[in-house]
Amino acid sequence: MSALPSRFLYLCLHFLVLYFQLQQSQQTTADFRFYIENHTRNPDDLSRKQVRIYQLYSRTTGKHVQVLGKKVNANGDDGALLVVETETFGSHIRIKGKESEHYICMNEKGKIVGRPDGRKQECVFVEEFLENNYTALVSAKYKGWYLGFNRKGRPKKGSRTTQRQQEVHFMKRPPKGRPDPLEEFRFTPVTKRTRRARRLKPNPKRN
Q1: How far apart are alpha carbons 153 and 75 in whole angstroms?
Q2: Radius of gyration of the chain (CA)
C-alpha cells in the first residue's frame, strides 16, 4: 500500500514538469512570432543588417540611377553613388542618393520620387535576381510594381511595369576605382585548350 502514494506522487510531479515545459515552449514561440511581425512591419535602424555603396546601372539608358533631391532618373555618370540599406529579413532594401540623402520611394500612384525620410514602406524594395544576371527591384508595398526607367532615363509608373521589361533591369556595380569584391573569387574556365596545355607542360620532378 505504501508504494501506491509514492507512485502517484511521482506521476503528479512528472505531469507538472511537462506542463511547465509546454507553457515555456508556447511563450517562446509567441515571443518569436511577435519579434518577426514587429521587425517586418516596422523595421528600424536596429533591424538593418548591412549598408553598401554601389552604382545601379540601367539596362535601357546605359547610365546609372541617381537621386537629385525629389527627382530620380537613370542618366547619372560614374559619380552617381547610391547607399543601399539591407534589412535583416529577406532581400528588403532601401536606396538613397549618397549626396542628396533622399530615398527612392514609390507612391500610391506608382510614381518614383525622392524623399528625405525612408522609413515608410513605400521606400522599401525587394531584390529579384534574374536569369540574365540583372536585378529587378519590386515595391514591397505595391506588389508587382517595379522600379523602372525609359530610354530617356525618366522613371516609369509602377503600374506599367513587369519583370520582363528591360526598363526594370539593373546591374549593381562597385564605385569606379574600387575593386570588385567578387573578382578574387573568379576562376579560369577549363577548356580543351587549357587541358592540352596542362598535358604538354613539363613536370620539373621528372628527370
Answers
A1: 5
A2: 27
CA dihedral 106, 169, 138, 42 (to 10 degrees): -80
**CB contact set of 158 (below 8 Å; sequence gap of 6+):** 106, 110, 111, 112, 139, 142, 145, 146, 147, 148
What pLDDT score does 63 carry? Answer: 97
Q: Show the CA angle centred on residue 76, arms to residues 81 and 71, nearest 5°.
A: 90
pLDDT along the chain (207 residues), means of 10: 63 73 58 44 53 95 97 96 82 94 97 96 96 95 97 97 97 78 41 51 50
Contact in structure between 168 and 162 (CB atoms under 8 Å): yes
Query: Which residue, 130, 129, 125, is CA-closest to 145?
Result: 125
For residues 205 and 207, what is the distance between their CA atoms, to the nearest angstrom?
7
Among candidates 119, 123, 118, 152, which has minimal Cα distance to 137?
A: 123
Dump strand ranges (E) for the chain.
48-58, 64-68, 71-76, 82-87, 92-97, 103-106, 112-115, 125-129, 135-139, 170-173
DSSP secondary structure code for residue 155 in this structure: B
Q: What is the pLDDT of residue 82?
A: 97
Q: Report which of 130, 138, 149 is spatially closest to residue 60, judged by C-alpha positions.
A: 149
Q: Is the pTM of this model over 0.90?
A: no
Nine cell digits for residue 120: 515608410
